[in-house]
Amino acid sequence: MGKHAVQILKLDTDKLILMLNxxxxxxxxxxxxxxxxxxxxxxxxxSEVEPELLLHADEELAHAELxxxxxxxxxxxxxxxxxxxxxxSKCAYEEPIDSYVEAILNQNLKGERCAIQRxxxxxxxxxxxxxxxxxxxxxxxxxxxxxxEDIEAWLNDLARMKEDFAKLRM
Length: 170
Prior knowledge:
CATH superfamily: Ferritin, core subunit, four-helix bundle
CATH class: Mainly Alpha
Radius of gyration: 18 Å
Largest sheet: none
Number of domains: 1
């Protein structure tokens, strides 16, 4: 982004770059949360859920690239050290200690809901002031909303499966 393009933004660019670096940290952690969760996951529907979690991981990585590029366009510096990710992230990273599919999905659901809020905040901060960042935030938020919907559907399927098995036992 040229110097004039940064100057005409009607917002605090330092605050925006901080918000974007927080989002960048969260995207990297979300990528790893999905990727490692898909690898260690066990339980019913694993074969259906695993490829989708890996797809979500790829999408989180693509979000990290969009965010990093936007930080650079704003003449900022993206986080340079992975040790900074947990310091900047407002979304928790949860180790998949319980590898049961439902536990993995619940961890990812928490992350998606946090990401939705993150991009809602960025969209509100940039609306009418920085069209490029606003459009990027809305685009990523739409992906995160889709991820949330996918996870909720799998969790609902698991709940129904449990109900059906309970009926069979009676």
